Please model this.
Amino acid sequence: MALWRFMEYYSPAGNNLIEEWYLGLSEAAQAEFDVTLKTLAITENWRGMAEFKHLGKDGLCEIRFSADNIQYRPAGFFGPGARVFSIYVGCHKKGKIYYPPEAFDLAAKRRRKVENGEASLNERTV
Model:
C-alpha cells in the first residue's frame, strides 16, 4: 500500500506539463521513472535513498533515476499536505549542469502559481 502520493503540475491553460515531459522520454526512461515513483511511494523515509535528494534551495528536491545514459532529475517540493510530493518540472542533468538550465527557478515559479491559484496540481497514478 502506498504511503506517499505524487502530484503533477498543470499549467494555467490546464496542460499537464509533467505528463508531457514524461511522454517525451524513451520507453526505458518512462519505465525507470515509474519504478522510482513506486519505490518512493512505499518507502516511509526517503533520507539517504539514491532515488531522492533534498537540494536545500527553499525546500527544492529532486527525484533521481537514470536511463539511456541520462541522469533524470524531475524536481519539486513536499506538499501540499502530509506525505505528498509535488513534481513541478521535468529535467535531466549532465555533469553539474541541469537541462533546462532554469529548471530550479521554473519549479519555484510554478509553485508560486499554484499557491496563487493561477495553476493547479493533480495526482499522478503510481
Notes: Helices lie at 17-23, 27-41, 103-115. The chain has a mean pLDDT of 96. The longest helix spans residues 27-41. The chain has one domain: 5-124.
